[in-house]
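Q: I have 385 residues here and want to know how they pack in 3D. Can you give me a structure?
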Amino acid sequence: MKLLLIHNNYGVYSGEEVVFDKQVALFREMGHEVVVYRKTTEGLRDTLWGDFKGLLCGFYAPDAVRDIKRMMKENKPSAVVIHNLYPYISPAILKHIKKSGVPIIMTVHNFRLMCPTGLFMRNNMPCELCLKAGNEWNCIRHNCEHSVIKSIGYAGRNWYARVTKAYKDNVDIYACITRFQIQKLTEAGFDSSKLKYIPNFLDHSPLSTLHSPLSTDYVAVSGRLSREKGIDLILQVAARMPDVQFRFAGTLRPEEKIIVPIPENCVLLGHLSKEKLSEFYQNSRFLLVGSRCYEGFPMTILEEATFSKPAIAPGHAGFLEIIDNNVTGLHFIPSDMNDMEQKIRQLWNNPEKCGEMGNNAFEKLKNNYLSDIVKNEWEKIFECV
């Protein structure tokens, strides 16, 4: 098959970009011809004009529509796989693809089809008001983007996509990375027969030794170090635990440094290369995820499991299925620092149990989240469409 993959990059290389790149490589490995259409937000929203253009293009992006029409004509793909369309591609491309008779598959990374911010979060807590109301206006009412202009823009483009049925009328299959996403999309009125489960994956077979927790000396925190990821909660908990070392792989946003001081037992390593990141995981005792928001499917959990390491994460949303509580890791009460601290100490002070959970996490990775398994699921979808 010839496949056209479409994605709008974010301002900073993120988990979605990682998954998109892995998907391109996976499809080519499966023998499909892949054509990529990609735009980026990086550097384009640093000005007032860039923000204004992003707002308008969220409704209709004429450049992207023109490009997609041309690529459809020139490449004649058998199917189109879309990822993020905001802000410079827009859902307006979907009807033009559909008119050509080519099926559309959407990889669903987050909750943007139901929530303008994509996070299901408000005032640092999970929020499903827009889902329950069946519209987007609570985003404006509560100023969920902490900018009236952005909140109006995000709500407006979701409203436009909803009332025009841009996704519901044109997307043939939604490839959801968690079953929790399927549950929420069903609640939002999406056709359940179009919702398929295909999780994130690693594109290689891990070669891991058994977890040796006594040879490790820190708790690993990896990914975007931001408020929605609970970085402030983790730093406050770390300050209570001076006897435990914490290492952070990722860039801490400047505003977080001001709000929460960095304790002496915390080391910020910044962005790490692929090799350095592997070393970071290998030398850690376990992974800590502090997310206030529901999240999609953090690749960090799989990357840590490669080295037979368990994870501690909030007990909500997709984490409930990615991490088996007391088997491959632990769940803490979301946003509860006392419970987070208790779970960290539980795993830190019990190396034998930590090692057992890490080995279980490795087995779950091998049995559920490797590319060979995911390939079969994608082939079923391609046959279906």
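Q: Anything worth noting?
A: The chain has 16 helices and 14 strands. The first strand starts at residue 2 and ends at 9.
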